[in-house]
């Protein structure tokens, strides 16, 4: 499809009202922004929903309930060593709303494993939070324990040994079951999902087991299943059972969810939802597939919000600043997406919740003008009867210390409301360059998530191919500087020298690794000396596939509630063609598979070469941007013996030709405003004006905060790593008519727009 002028501007919006301050990075901003492919022009308004903290209550991590000592075998951490003189409450993994301000709150099996939790009694506690609302007459912010239920097998239902087999009460312990989810039936009894079987357990209202545990169909068992025969292969991973379970609105059917991928699956991101008929006590045979954002993510909880509709907690296993996924998605079992998984839509990102009343601000990480629940085990979500959202945590006592390092996390209950706020278009696009690569190792889901939290409109993955033809996000196909591959002796013989775009490069290359092999590597900061804060996250994150980046974008919202855009760059397409790994066809296929292949979708494809962009123009309807460097020439033209340079592309004639296949240009900053010999900014060239006359948008790369990258007039000192006046540099380019920019620090770019007369 040939295009001669832009038909959809690359624009963004800024929240016109109280905007969330991003406190999850070292630097902060006070503007909230977002983008989409189709939107009203500058100055137009629309509304979106913003999560706002309404109340918080906590139970001290060191609180002890009555009962025998617990934690004799628990791993010591954060200055705490068991046994403790009473029953620890290690957070809540599931809750039931009683509708009167109280909740049944259920911990899990205790201290993390079957082997160390034999002295932990399985219970559900009746709790009443006295909400701290930040108001003048606020509550205390404490969670009061009012009563409890002791889960037991007093009727002798179980036919396998339990820890307290020889007692009359036959109280159940964390070595017998790992209870993780709960649903209250209409008769007051409790259906409980657990992980060791995994089983569904049915208790009466007093906590007594009513019937034999209901096993998974098809003989699926975990390694801890008491019925697992010698030599029998488990089909469920250890402690990966029913972390989440909810019911149909009439209560007849239960929907337990396998927390992790099944053993032997061909897709590490697939989680299975089952259907159990409570009348027959048998599974119906119906299942659904849910896709997590990343392979290691787990389903932490679920809650029914309608017929076939549930809220799922999806989380990673990181905490504090390392957190990537702490989200609530709405899942609709009646609908599937383009890839055949149940449809899911973002309800809440628990890493970014407005806290206008300053509830508990300053008391720990994630407690400020922006509230976050950055705990490892985000495991509770409820919709309260007034429509607000309750979220909470399992604190894995005494191990988690996300809020204050060295201090065990308290148990938290948090109420969030979704408030409508007004936004106004300002016409400028902010692209998270390789994610928020100034704060997290580039091209990781952590960097992309940070960019989203910092109000970027688009996230930018550079695209290269693996040996088995999977597209992954790396700045270059050489990965020695962006992964820990050099620390893997098994890959030492993969180090080689290749000619890439006419230049010899030595290192390790993605096209020599399968995706499975790449998954064994971890990302590292490329500019470690300049960005020690980012380097602190080295070794944590995997190399993501393009599909995972697209999924994150389409399942995320900008700060004004629109779908996050994605801005893929094909790297070295001529080279990849030469080794039989063409990038264009699989790229288009991935866009189609993710439902991101129409003109209305927030997608822009970019490349430093020209031929592949012309090909992509014929292959897809999404928008295209021609990248332009300050020197040299597109390598495809060099390889073909042509003399056209980047300088030729930005002449009036060249820009008119570019407009025949592209919607915009992504230009090096020096192409638009060159630097003088002394390092100061010179006068703008005519490129922005000429591009606009040709019908092209103009985005510039790359804006970075460190002094070493800034014009001399905007540096704060002689320290190359110290941040200078990035906002000042950006404003000069905006005054020259720039439409958008790539930034390693999206929060600072957004702040610069806020100070440039944009609301």
From TrEMBL:
Origin organism is Isoptericola halotolerans
Q: Does the keyword Signal apply?
A: yes
Which Pfam families is this protein grouped with? Answer: GDPD, Phytase-like
* The family this protein is said to belong to: Belongs to the glycerophosphoryl diester phosphodiesterase family.
Per the database record, which ranges form the GP-PDE domain?
Answer: 428-753
User: What PROSITE patterns does this protein's entry cite?
Assistant: GP_PDE
Name the segments for region: Disordered.
62-86
Q: Which SUPFAM superfamilies match?
A: PLC-like phosphodiesterases
**Protein known as:** glycerophosphodiester phosphodiesterase
Keyword Hydrolase in annotation: yes
């Amino acid at each position: 499809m040939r295009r001669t002028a832009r038909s959809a501007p690359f624009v963004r919006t800024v929240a016109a009202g109280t905007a969330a301050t991003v406190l999850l990075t070292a630097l902060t901003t006070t503007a909230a922004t977002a983008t989409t492919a189709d939107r009203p022009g500058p100055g137009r308004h629309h509304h979106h929903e913003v999560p706002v903290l309404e109340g918080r209550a906590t139970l001290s991590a060191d609180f002890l309930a009555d009962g025998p000592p617990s934690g004799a075998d628990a791993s010591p951490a954060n200055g705490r060593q068991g046994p403790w003189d009473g029953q620890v409450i290690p957070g809540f993994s599931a809750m039931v709303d009683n509708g009167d301000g109280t909740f049944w709150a259920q911990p899990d099996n205790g201290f993390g494993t079957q082997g160390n939790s034999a002295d932990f009694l399985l219970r559900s506690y009746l709790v009443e939070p006295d909400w701290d609302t930040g108001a003048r007459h606020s509550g205390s912010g404490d969670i009061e324990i009012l009563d409890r239920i002791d889960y037991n097998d007093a009727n002798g239902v179980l036919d396998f040994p339990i820890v307290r087999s020889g007692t009359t009460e036959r109280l159940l312990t964390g070595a017998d079951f790992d209870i993780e989810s709960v649903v209250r039936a209409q008769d007051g009894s409790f259906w409980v999902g657990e992980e060791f079987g995994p089983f569904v357990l049915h208790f009466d209202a007093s906590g007594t087991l009513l019937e034999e545990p209901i096993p998974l169909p098809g003989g699926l068992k975990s390694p801890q299943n008491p019925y697992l025969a010698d030599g029998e292969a488990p089909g469920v991973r250890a402690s990966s059972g029913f972390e989440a379970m909810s019911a149909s609105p009439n209560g007849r059917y239960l929907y337990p969810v396998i927390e992790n991928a099944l053993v032997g699956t061909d897709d590490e991101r697939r989680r299975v939802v089952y259907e159990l008929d409570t009348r027959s006590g048998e599974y119906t045979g119906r299942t659904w597939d849910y896709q997590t954002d990343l392979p290691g993510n787990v389903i932490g909880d679920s809650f029914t919000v309608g017929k076939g509709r549930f809220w799922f907690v999806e989380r990673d296993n990181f905490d504090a600043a390392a957190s990537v996924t702490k989200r609530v998605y709405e899942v609709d079992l009646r609908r599937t997406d383009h890839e055949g998984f149940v449809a899911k839509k973002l309800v809440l990102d628990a890493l970014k919740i407005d806290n206008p009343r300053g509830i508990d601000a300053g008391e720990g990480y994630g407690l400020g003008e922006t509230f976050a629940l950055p705990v490892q085990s985000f495991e509770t979500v409820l919709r309260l009867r007034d429509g607000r959202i309750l979220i909470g945590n399992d604190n894995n006592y005494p191990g988690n210390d996300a809020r204050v390092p060295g201090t065990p996390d308290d148990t938290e209950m948090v109420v969030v409301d979704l408030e409508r706020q007004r936004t106004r278009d300002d016409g400028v696009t902010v692209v998270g360059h390789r994610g928020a690569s100034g704060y997290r190792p580039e091209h990781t889901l952590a960097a992309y998530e940070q960019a989203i939290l910092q109000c970027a409109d688009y996230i930018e993955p550079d695209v290269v191919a693996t040996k088995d033809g999977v597209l992954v996000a790396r700045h270059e196909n050489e990965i020695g500087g962006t992964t820990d591959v050099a620390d893997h002796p098994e890959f030492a013989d993969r180090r080689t020298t290749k000619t890439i775009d006419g230049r010899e490069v030595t290192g390790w290359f993605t096209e020599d690794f399968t995706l499975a092999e790449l998954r064994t590597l971890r990302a590292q900061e490329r500019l470690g000396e300049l960005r020690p804060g980012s380097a602190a996250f080295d070794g944590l994150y995997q190399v993501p596939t393009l599909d995972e980046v697209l999924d994150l974008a389409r399942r995320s919202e900008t700060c004004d509630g629109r779908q996050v855009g994605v801005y893929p760059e094909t790297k070295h397409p001529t080279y990849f063609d030469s080794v039989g790994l063409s990038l264009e066809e699989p790229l288009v296929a991935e866009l189609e598979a993710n439902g991101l292949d129409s003109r209305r979708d927030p997608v822009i494809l970019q490349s430093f070469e020209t031929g592949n962009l012309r090909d992509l123009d014929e292959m897809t309807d999404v928008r295209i941007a021609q990248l332009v460097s300050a020197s040299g020439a597109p390598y495809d033209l060099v390889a073909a013996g042509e003399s056209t340079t980047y300088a030729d592309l930005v002449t009036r004639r060249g820009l008119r030709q570019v407009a025949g296949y592209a919607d915009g240009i992504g230009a090096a900053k020096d192409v638009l405003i060159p630097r003088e010999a002394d390092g100061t900014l010179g006068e703008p060239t005519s490129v922005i004006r000429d591009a606009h006359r040709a019908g092209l948008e103009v985005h510039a790369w790359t804006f970075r905060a460190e002094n070493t990258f800034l014009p001399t007039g905007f540096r704060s000192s002689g320290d190359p790593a110290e941040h200078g006046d990035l906002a000042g540099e950006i404003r000069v380019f905006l005054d020259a008519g720039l439409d958008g920019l790539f930034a390693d620090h999206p929060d600072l770019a957004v702040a610069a727009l806020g100070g440039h007369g944009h609301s």
